Amino acid sequence: MATAKSGYFYLVLTILFWSTTPALAKLALKELTNSQLLLYTILTGVLILFLVNLFMGKLRILSNYSKVDYLKMFGMGFLGIYLYNSLLYGSFALAPAGQANVINYLWPIFIIVFSIVILKERFNYKTVIAILLGFLGALIVFSGGNLSAFNGESVTGYLLAAIGAVCFALFSVLGKKLKYEKFTSMLAYYVAAAVLIVPTVLITSGVVVPISFSTVIAILMLGGVNNSLAFIFWFQALKLGNTHKTANAVYAVPFLALFWTYILNGEHFSLTSIIGLVCIVAGIFLQVRNKA
Q: Taking the domains of the chain in order of start, what are their residue ranges?
């Protein structure tokens, strides 16, 4: 019973922190470009993950990886940390953050697609329905229920969120195939992303020191908690709790994200956003039940 309660505790923390990501990013993007924000969150993440691995005594595992392993990790860091977050922050900058986050939640649907293509997992008619529901939900959010609205100013942001979902899904499937130790590999991914983001910022926008209190807090939360410690909480929740119940509970994240962007950013969300999100989550849930 104590183990189950601990699992739920870590799960609640994970959902709470992940759901604040769009709102916090939107706050910081008032002062920083998406690449500048990514620079600070990645560097903060490297520091936190280094300390976590040091505390857990896992740093020695890094010496067990080969040059080929590190080359693969560099590619994973590019795909899942650098490119994914660049696209995600870019989408938050160009579109309502809560609704862009709804589109980003297509990543579990794309995981289904990539699992079939890359991992050769079997599928059936329920899998196809799940995929179609996900894309239907995205279409509803994209268009706002009006197909003539595809030329709106937020569409570019939504497209970035969708491409980001593809990147994160591919990152997740490849991570499952590579089977590296979770904590040390995450540190290696972040170091690779740091190597990439530093020259990107120097070439594109230059380094800007944030002076707003809200920006500093957003950076510390995003890099130090949401994108690093929250993953550790997630691993603990999966370890201590029921895997299917834990995975299903994460569906609350995009709904809560709409709430946080309303409270912290003053973004109003429409009924079509809720309907689209329900379709996406229904597709994910159908596939989870299909595999259970």
A: 2-291
